[in-house]
Amino acid sequence: MLVAENLTKQFDSKLAVNQISFTVKSGVVTGLLGPNGAGKTTTMRLLTGYLEPSSGKVLYNGNSINENPVFLKQRLGYLPESAPLYPDMLVIEFLEYMGSVRGIKENLKEKVEKMIELCDLKTHLNVPISFLSKGFKQRVALAGTLIHDPEIIILDEPTSGLDPNQISHIRSLIKGLAKEKILILSTHILQEVEDICDEVIIINNGQIVANSTVKNLNTANEVLISTNASEKQVQEIFSSHDFLGVSLQNPKDIDGYFSFIISLKENKPELVFERMAKSSFLVREIRSYKKSLESIFEELTRK
What we know:
By secondary structure, this protein is an alpha/beta fold. The protein contains 10 helices and 14 strands. The strands form 3 sheets. The chain has a 6-stranded mixed sheet with strand order 6-7-8-3-9-10, with helices on both faces. Strands 2-1-4-5 form a 4-stranded antiparallel sheet. It is elongated. It starts with a strand and ends with a helix.
């Protein structure tokens, strides 16, 4: 278990991360999201020990990275957005070098072969890294990150520059790795979060604005209805204490229908049906309404 306790990082007059706390468990993919400049990269660098916090601490299985940095770094695999590579090395040379740097001696060849298979690199082993496409460079960097079989994996935009087939392969790889690892994924692709993340932490202005499972991120009890009633009439229908509010979703269409979002105090969508059934207005559609991750992200990071 990886724990951040009241992490704060101050750069001169800039407060990049402001007393954030969270726990990342093994067996799940945790997405780390936020707009540019929100503090994601600083947070990842604090988690890896690349930066020292101004206050707070990072713990892995009870061990503080501040007090015992080598303990954590031996168990960590970190892939930054701009993957560090040696352009003059052949792919096979780079993998062997990364394995030796990580202290792998007896079974280095076996580890290298595993990474070649895992990241599908066998067709480019004797190609200089400088000749590779951006997508292949990303796969080589990922192989170097994973070669020592780390217990904690932190990936910053791992599918950047990959084609659709490569993206699918890397996403499957990430989901497989997370079954036994602590895995944090930072990405700007919200569809990627919905596809592979189990939990999500959203940071804005250096603070956590959401920390939830992806499934439970949208906890609002809301129902969408399409009716020929006007906004004023719908407001009157749902004016009791059971309802928190009504918002116009779409203006009147060519058939004279409006769409509204009805917010309920409790998860009782049947109340919406009952109210509309008792009214004299026509209803063309009524269904539970869930916001997209994109709209939730925009709401949480708007300020």
